[in-house]
TrEMBL record:
<dbReference type="InterPro" id="IPR008979">
    <property type="entry name" value="Galactose-bd-like_sf"/>
</dbReference>
<dbReference type="InterPro" id="IPR013783">
    <property type="entry name" value="Ig-like_fold"/>
</dbReference>
<dbReference type="InterPro" id="IPR006103">
    <property type="entry name" value="Glyco_hydro_2_cat"/>
</dbReference>
<protein>
    <submittedName>
        <fullName>Glycoside hydrolase family 2 TIM barrel-domain containing protein</fullName>
    </submittedName>
</protein>
<dbReference type="Pfam" id="PF02836">
    <property type="entry name" value="Glyco_hydro_2_C"/>
</dbReference>
<comment type="similarity">
    <text>Belongs to the glycosyl hydrolase 2 family.</text>
</comment>
<dbReference type="GO" id="GO:0016787">
    <property type="term" value="F:hydrolase activity"/>
</dbReference>
<dbReference type="InterPro" id="IPR023232">
    <property type="entry name" value="Glyco_hydro_2_AS"/>
</dbReference>
<dbReference type="InterPro" id="IPR006101">
    <property type="entry name" value="Glyco_hydro_2"/>
</dbReference>
<keyword id="KW-0732">Signal</keyword>
<dbReference type="InterPro" id="IPR006104">
    <property type="entry name" value="Glyco_hydro_2_N"/>
</dbReference>
<dbReference type="InterPro" id="IPR036156">
    <property type="entry name" value="Beta-gal/glucu_dom_sf"/>
</dbReference>
<keyword id="KW-0326">Glycosidase</keyword>
<keyword id="KW-0378">Hydrolase</keyword>
<dbReference type="InterPro" id="IPR017853">
    <property type="entry name" value="GH"/>
</dbReference>
<dbReference type="Pfam" id="PF02837">
    <property type="entry name" value="Glyco_hydro_2_N"/>
</dbReference>
<feature type="signal peptide">
    <location>
        <begin position="1"/>
        <end position="23"/>
    </location>
</feature>
Amino acid sequence: MRIVTGMMAAAIATALSAGPVLGQSAPLPPSTVTSSLPLATVETEPLLVSADMRDALDLSGAWHYSIDPFRAGLAGFHGETPDAGQRRFLDIDVAKEMARDTRTLYEFDLAHAPLAILPSSWLTTTAELRHYQGLMWYQRHFAAPIKRTGRTFLRFGAANYRTYVYLNGQPVGRHEGGFTPFAFEVTKLLRDGDNQITVGVDSQATPETVPPPVTDWENYGGITRAVRLISTPDTYVDDAWVRLTRAGRIAVDLHLNGAASARRAVRLRIGELGLDVPGSTDAKGDWHGEIDAPAALTRWSPERPKLYDVAIDAGDDHWRDRIGFRTIEVRGADILLNGKPIFLRGISMHEEELGAEPTRAITPAAARALLSEIKDGLHGNYVRLAHYPHSEVMTRAADELGLLVWSEVPVYWMIAWSNPETLATARNMLAENILRDRNRAAIAIWSVANETTVTDARNAFLRTLVADARKLDDTRLISAALLVDHGKGPGAPVMTLADPLSDDVDLLAINTYNGWYTADRLADLPATTWHVPTGKPLVFSEFGADALAGFHAPQKFSEEYQADYYRATLAMAARLPTLRGMSPWILKDFRSPRRQNPDFQQGWNRKGLISETGQRKLAFGVLSTFYESKREADAAAAK
Ligand code: GCU
């Protein structure tokens, strides 16, 4: 199948035909607050795929911060352009200006405001900010790189949730979405020597946002991933997707951005495989190339996560990434990795580092600490990165360690299914997620939703997302975590999956909590009857029970109850003929404002198999033993 080669804007325009094209500063949906400032019309918001592999000036570190709960820096109190005295982004020395002229008034002064270390969420900056939801302003100065040729971009790994960016007092652009990267060109705004960057981040969710206000996780507002200043040649590789097709060929789709992108000689090189594939872009700056995979190719797998250094030369730009080559597909009720059936031995995860005060700032060490618990502790080969796109640091760590990944967008619970702006936001978010990570071999599944009630509007919304995902990536599986109907049988529950979306996805995924949220007795669970379509593979995307680490008693919230729940649920799972994997809920206790039992929860969802500080609970051993025996049995069967 020929991948849409009108890469980027065209491909996305096709895929998102009814919504805004990624790459333009799509008009953000109306929200509780809109900036009345004339934001720069960003020509084409660049993708800068694999930007984390490019040299850059990293702006992590100390930034001044100032809260703005009434959003005075974005709009005046009648919604008009903000008063001059409220414009946090002005490129001025506030103290000096006021000392110079007694008529001058500014009701902010970021240069004299306190400092936060970014990337991080402001929830952990001070005790007063622990529950702040709203608009926060950040500002810092930096010296522009002395030698500057070509073009310069500001790239954000992510900022939660709505972001407004200014450089040297000028609007640069804005972005909606808390978990995907975005970049703006600042070539013309950057000046020699000292520069001032000001960023407004508004964490406030609304019924129209993705996710909506009601979730089951902490809303970590802030600049939670790195901000980097990236320079490229005048014409550069803005997107490149290099993968192994199901036909056994190495395919590349690339898009050049710049004045000399058309009819440009390009070259794909994978030195370790002796590959050096010349090509030329078309009039739109796109190139699609393919070549039979060399016999020497070692396919990526959890057991052998082989990554290759991949380079693309395009004039003065030398793009590079580290890429694994593998195939993932379904055949009947089986999931095939590199043509062989696989059982996904997984666990779910939120994006929180280990420790008593997580701030959702994932470093390579933090990612490896979590994923090693899955790979080595649980003998897992799979992780569900719930409920939103996790940091690229995490997905690269999964590539390196060898864990297959379920990646998802926060189309969660009560979405405004009939709101076109909400659909546009979700489509953009899905595209940004897929386009960021298509080169990650670890990612096997794109999920478009979690626990959404079946209605016509919801079905149409999700089918649009499924279609977008298929257009942007025909090499991975599409799924969604679905709800099931719980019925009473003679002695055990009767569960029925009656979701029409089952017809649209490659992989059926079910969240089930019998014995925790229901009055079912654990002893009855193994005899549960399941009615699910049998023509596709099934995974349990969630099941779990809370336990406070160290609490031992014959009741819910004890480690013993959680362990017994796992034994009973695993016994039930073993009887499902088309079950091909699971990602129990959840690796680590995580912050959730919904969980306020003062004895056991204290604002934490305690379904983790390890506590927030990494203390393993009894159930960890139950799952670890099950996966070790499953791995050995599968290995023996494969011989
Ligand atoms: C749901 C939901 C999770 C939530 C979990 C729970 O299935 O998908 O986000 O945390 O149940 O209740 O713990």
